[in-house]
Amino acid sequence: MPLVIHARNLSKRFVLRHNAGDLKVRALGLVGGAHRSRREAFWALRGVSLRVEAGESLALIGRNGSGKSTLLKLVAGIHRPSSGELLVRRDTQIASMIELGTGFHPELTGQENVFLNASIHGLSRADAARLYPAVVAYSGLQHFMDVPLKTYSSGMQMRLGFAIAAQLQPDALLLDEIFAVGDEDFQKQCVDTVQAFLAAGKTIIFVSHSAAAVQTICRRVCVLERGEIRYDGDVDGGLTEYRRLNAATPNQPLGETPSMSHQVPSEDRAWHRTASGGRWAEEGAWVYDFLRTHGLLPHHYILEVGCGSLGAAVRLLPYMEQSHYWGFEKNNELFVAGVQIELPRAGVAPERGHFVVNDDVDLSSVPHAFDFAIASALIRRLSLNTIARVFIAVVRKLAPSGRFYISWPEIPAGEPPADREPYHYSFDMLARLAELAGGRAEHLSDRSHPRGESLMVITRP
């Protein structure tokens, strides 16, 4: 097959400016020099050589900060290499979905953004007008095309972006974590489109943390670590190498080599286990036992709100019937650590459940009403405004007899809430938010939570 992309000893260097935006630092630097902002060179890629032929489906995987998205942006022409060469076959049309919002303007309507994005890809207005009906039909956003993009959820933005990319019929399609948002039906539609591209001899380069998505789409994997390619070969071997790297250094800060670390923290001190407040294993076991005590059965539908690094999911997924567990998480890095580190360690397949990851607390893609919902490690991470969004989203998804259990660090009524994590709130504050969301809150006397947090339950009146 003809060569489409050829990277030769490719490197990319960024300059990190520390404190560059601090007005005080800049002012003091002018008079004394001691407080000037500090610059640091960061090599996102080092000496990467890669050949991609027409019709290949290549996955770029690696830990956060490994350089995979940077490599994708170099291919897309968003960045220029610092050294080395990146050659793309002449007349190759490339379409990309690299970041939500790329090629879009939040103040423009969906329709206007279709024309804007098409023009960025080199289409004339007449060509964009011919594509427009197919883009709208593919995205399923017929009723939202005349409203500003800033009102779209992340899932809706992904739908529109992928619909445009699909209708361009490119020679090469670059995808970065497009399955992190969006409902199950649209994800299947995306996969079908990608597979149709491959059947037509087109090229796919796919960045993802999802092993299931990589196995579905790709036939070749490159594992990147600290800007270098550590593995280039078949999918199973690539996923094994990625899991080996994660298991070997799950706690190691990005950019730190093993020789720099004098003591490797224990598993219980891993960053993803402590990020939600600590006691990862105890809290996961508590969630499982608490829900079982309150009547959870395998056939029920359960929503874990703020599933984090899946401390409870490792127990709930094997217990629940297939696809009856749903997890929601705002922090993608926590979720990825759970899928790539904790579930493999426990021998639990993530495909037994479903996960929704976004910043908008958007549960519109979830097709079920839930018998049980629980937030055990989330409220302490959220401001009141975001808690209100959580309550509204979850109460709307509760079955008529459904129950939403919540733990949180409580303060006495009348005291001001904390202004930083971990957030503390009074029951009265949260009860008022629950009422505004259409629910009714009840304070529970149970004090069994591993961190001693208070408990409440929200039901539908």
Topology of this structure?
Layout: E1 3-18, H1 23-31, E2 38-53, E3 57-62, H2 68-76, E4 83-88, E5 94-97, H3 110-120, H4 125-139, H5 154-168, E6 172-176, H6 184-199, E7 203-207, H7 211-217, E8 220-225, E9 228-233, H8 235-248, H9 271-274, H10 280-293, E10 302-305, H11 313-319, E11 325-329, H12 332-346, E12 354-357, E13 370-375, H13 384-397, E14 398-408, H14 427-436, E15 440-444, E16 454-459
Parallel strand pairs: 3-7, 3-8, 5-6, 6-7, 10-11, 10-13, 11-12, 13-14
Antiparallel strand pairs: 1-2, 1-4, 8-9, 14-16, 15-16
Helix pairs in contact: 3-4, 3-5, 4-5, 13-14
The major pleated sheet works out as: 7 strands, mixed
The average pLDDT score comes to 83
* Shape-level CATH architecture of the largest domain: 3-Layer(aba) Sandwich
Strands of the widest sheet, in order across it, are: 12-11-10-13-14-16-15
Description:
This protein has helices at residues 23-31, 68-76, 110-120, 125-139, 154-168, 184-199, 211-217, 235-248, 271-274, 280-293, 313-319, 332-346, 384-397, 427-436, and strands spanning 3-18, 38-53, 57-62, 83-88, 94-97, 172-176, 203-207, 220-225, 228-233, 302-305, 325-329, 354-357, 370-375, 398-408, 440-444, 454-459. With 461 residues, it is an alpha/beta fold. The protein folds into two domains: 53-247, P-loop containing nucleotide triphosphate hydrolases (Rossmann fold); 274-459, Vaccinia Virus protein VP39 (Rossmann fold). The strands form three sheets. Strands 12-11-10-13-14-16-15 form a seven-stranded mixed beta sheet, with helices on both faces. Strands 5-6-7-3-8-9 form a six-stranded mixed beta sheet, sandwiched between helices. A three-stranded antiparallel beta sheet has the order 2-1-4, covered by helices on one side. Helix 4 crosses helix 5. The longest helix has 16 residues, at 184-199. The N and C termini lie far apart (64 Å).
